[in-house]
């Protein structure tokens, strides 16, 4: 399945060429052309304008052009399909106006170009336009499903409650830093700590030492207050998760109202991104919040699973699960990396972990509760087995 891919674009926009090649390979396989040859060329607008003028007599750039080597729609596997040329400049403009990631826009243009090479033409008739659009949507869904299946759900462990126990005595043990190391050795993909304004569990010292010791990924959970923002900018965790924080609550109670504080959150995201810190927003499984999170430039969302976990009847649990599943799919389709967490335990985690769109789960209390009984290493390994679906 030779896919020849070349970029003559200026490099203004960063493009993952190996990933684009993998997308092309998946698409060739899905269209029964896995042994056929395809060339992809990425250019800037000026070069595209020249091609568009030369071949279509239109003196302006366009997003994608296809140059088929075969005729008709009955193309044998193993053929030379032809060339797809994509303007990265136009793709980037379109991506921005559609608030979709450039990677997804490029995938869509690749699909469009490939369908032309396979003999479809939306300019020939209305019926063909409808057929082509249907095929495009089918291939786009196939590509999304394949991308999701190729990534295993990861497990980040929240060690706040090791600090809760320490603070109960006001001495220096147990130490969340040591606990984090054991979690990592047991296979956790990340460590999460919530530096609360009232410092009820995690202390500034914990965050600073964890920054030095965590080998996987340190995710600092925090409210968007000036004091904590300045600590985050100084410590530079691998990412932050913004949560609503109320002084009286026992634990984080609900998702952020992103739509209600769009400007403020957009500014925090921009500030963090400038320092190279990606931002996740902890939100309820609500389409409005997801859309706004994508709009204001969040890299991740963490879907609040609390209502699913706390449901007291089977009907309620089903309903809440459907909301989480739909929200995860929607966020993924908008190009967000999707995490989930809150209230997950050894009984309810499997279904959420099995959702294709979920990248990582953030789990604290249930793992800490088990660790007291069976040890931290075993508690993390048992949860990891459930998350990976092999227990
Ligand atoms: N995600 C967020 C945003 C949280 O606030 C918490 C609780 O600290 C968790 C995940 C973990 O929840 P739990 O302790 O119930 O596993």
Percent range for helical residues?
40-55%
Name of the CATH class of the largest domain: Alpha Beta
Oligomer: single chain
Low-confidence stretches: none
Query: What would the principal axes of the Cα set say about the shape?
Result: elongated
* Major sheet size, sense and barrel closure: 8 strands, parallel, barrel
Quote the beta fraction: 15-25%
The structural class is alpha/beta
Structure summary, number of beta strands: 12
Tell me the CATH topology of the largest domain. Answer: TIM Barrel
In this entry the ligands are: pyridoxine-5'-phosphate
* H/E element sequence: EHEHEEHHHEHHEHEHEHEHEHHEHEHH
Describe this structure in words.
The chain is an alpha/beta fold and 391 residues long. The protein folds into two domains: 3-149, Metalloproteases ("zincins"), catalytic domain (Collagenase (Catalytic Domain)), CATH 3.40.390; 154-388, TIM Barrel, CATH 3.20.20.70. The chain contains 16 helices and twelve strands. The strands form two sheets. Strands 5-6-7-8-9-10-11-12 form an eight-stranded parallel β-barrel, surrounded by eight helices. A four-stranded mixed beta sheet has the order 1-2-4-3, with helices on both faces. The relative contact order is 0.09. The model has no long low-confidence stretch (mean pLDDT 93). The structure holds pyridoxine-5'-phosphate (PXP).
């Amino acid at each position: 399945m030779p896919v020849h891919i070349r970029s003559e674009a200026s490099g203004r926009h960063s493009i993952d060429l190996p990933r684009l090649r993998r997308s092309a390979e998946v698409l060739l396989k899905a269209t029964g052309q896995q042994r056929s040859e395809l060339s992809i060329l990425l250019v800037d607008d000026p070069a595209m304008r020249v091609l568009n003028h030369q071949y279509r007599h239109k003196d302006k750039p366009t997003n994608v052009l296809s140059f088929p080597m075969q005729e008709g729609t009955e193309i044998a596997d193993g053929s030379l399909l032809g060339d797809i040329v994509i303007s990265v400049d136009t793709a980037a403009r379109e991506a921005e106006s559609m608030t979709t990631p450039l990677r997804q826009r490029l995938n869509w243009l690749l699909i469009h170009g490939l369908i032309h090479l396979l003999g479809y033409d939306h300019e020939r008739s209305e019926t063909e336009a409808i057929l082509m659009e249907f095929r495009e949507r089918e291939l786009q869904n196939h590509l999304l499903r394949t991308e999701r299946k190729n990534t295993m759900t990861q497990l980040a462990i929240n060690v706040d409650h090791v600090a809760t126990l320490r603070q109960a005595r006001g001495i220096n043990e147990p130490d969340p830093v040591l606990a984090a190391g054991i979690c990592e050795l047991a296979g956790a993909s990340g460590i999460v700590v919530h530096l609360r304004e009232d410092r009820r569990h995690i202390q500034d010292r914990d965050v600073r030492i964890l920054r030095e010791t965590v080998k996987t990924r340190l995710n600092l959970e925090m409210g968007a207050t000036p004091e904590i923002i300045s600590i985050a900018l100084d410590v530079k965790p691998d990412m932050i998760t913004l949560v609503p924080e109320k002084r009286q609550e026992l634990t984080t109670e609900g998702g952020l109202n992103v739509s209600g504080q769009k400007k403020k959150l957009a500014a925090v995201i921009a500030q963090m991104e400038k320092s190279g810190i990606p931002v996740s927003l902890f939100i309820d499984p609500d389409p409005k919040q997801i859309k706004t999170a994508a709009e204001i430039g969040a890299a991740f969302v963490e879907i609040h699973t609390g209502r699913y976990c706390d449901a007291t009847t089977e009907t309620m649990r089903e309903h809440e699960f459907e909301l989480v599943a739909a929200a995860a799919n929607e966020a993924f389709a908008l190009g967000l990396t999707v995490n989930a967490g809150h209230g997950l335990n050894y009984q309810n985690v499997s279904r959420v972990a099995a959702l294709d769109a979920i990248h990582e789960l953030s789990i604290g209390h249930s793992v800490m509760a088990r660790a007291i009984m069976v040890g931290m290493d075993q508690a993390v390994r048992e949860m990891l087995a459930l998350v990976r679906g092999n227990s």
